[in-house]
Design brief:
The complex is a heterodimer of chains A (about 130) and B (about 350). Chain A is α/β, with parallel strands linked by helices and about 130 residues long. Chain A contains 2 helices and 6 strands. Classes of the chains: A alpha/beta (about 130), B alpha+beta (about 350). At the A-B interface, strand 2 and strand 3 of A face strand 6, strand 7, strand 8 and helix 10 of B.
Chain lengths: ~130, ~350
Amino acid sequence: MSQQIIKEILPKDLLAETIHLKNEGYRLVAITCTNKKTKDEETSVEKDEMELSYSFDKDYDLINLRFSVCADDEIESVSLLYSYAFLYENEIKELFGVSIKDISLDFNNTLYKIPVKAPFHTQKEDK
Amino acid sequence: MGKRTVIPFGPQHPVLPEPIHLDLVLEDEVVVEAIPQIGYVHRGLEKLVEKKDYQQYTYVAERICGICSFMHGMGYCQTIESIMNVEIPERAKFLRTIWAELSRMHSHTLWLGLLADAFGFESLFMHSWRIREKILDIFEETTGGRVIFSVCDVGGVRKDISAETLKKIDKIMDELEKEFKEITDVFFNDASVKSRTVGVGVLSKQAAHDLGAVGPMARASGIESDMRSQGYAAYGKLDFKPIVETAGDCYARTSVRMKEIYQSIDLVKQCIAIIPEGDIKVKVTGNPNGEYFTRIEQPRGEVVYYAKANGTKYLDRVRVRTPTFANIPPLLETLKGCALADVPILVVTIDPCISCTER
């Protein structure tokens, strides 16, 4: 069976890591966003974060670049490197409210035309 | 340069079974750019994981799509089984493979009919769908359902297929092969069909790679990528090699799917020949804890299932990346430079499933 690796990176290293994988011939498979609750080590206050995984494939092996961001953080688009990333990025932007700058084709939160802002960026209190 | 005009294509169009909208920028009769717009059937099914426990979610996964319903259930179950380190019985793996390949056959046959309908060959459309009915009959006999079967479960499958029924399916496969040969000849050799498919919407191998094409769309452009090569379910025990064409046009995409139907017939027969006796399900206890990415080959191409579990019966996240989602950018590329009259054919040749795409 194929391998799957999760590589933790910092948000600022996303473009450099992506360029490296693109030069190695990797294909962008998906970008996944997950809600995540973390505790601040100093204040013990719970904070909402979002975990982003950029999945790349080569010869059936999967490498996932992973980092977490807060709702206020802005990250770079990888659509200049992988043009088709614009769909994944628009989806994450609209459903989770992640701020992504310089998307090659930015739908400005109208990809799915949902009237609720960032409907997937909620925690599970309403379960 | 001719005058530029923008023509809206969809969301309702005779060639579209489901809604997608394209703004086509034209110079005279030639498309120079296409801008997609989706969002007409977004159901938020990934979000539903917060309300349904990990076993109930199998039913939700099966409802992502009415064509590859079984494979959605299978992809989801494989993901949870991987997180929980559950090894399903060998017989369940073979049964899953049989239903998966029958699903591929019915999906590709449905697509062939839609393609024939798109270029106005109504009798070919009807013959394709007539043959497809026989595959749906097998589903009904073995699972009780013709569209959504609900036979996949975490830990195996819910229903077995008797030796007698397997023998009958084997015989039906032989009959289907003969019937498919009749329509294959038309799809491959009829001059009116070839005039609409040969050299139309060419996607080069490099472009297919650069735009992340998957499934028959990628294989028709020379990319030998098929998730079945990983050997999941029973594929590791079967003689299997991805079907690849190199022309990258509508004819090549038709050819890949047509040949994959014959390959599916062969794979079903291989499974029937060597399926072992035994249990069809193992008891699964406890709750999943961890995460896993699963990729399987649906009729339209690679589907990605990701699940993250926290040790409770509710998952933190289920994420599905469907093949049509991946094939929209390659579609936009093939539309550039095509004649307006070819747009419906090109949209159909990615075999779009918008319910899958939007989930």
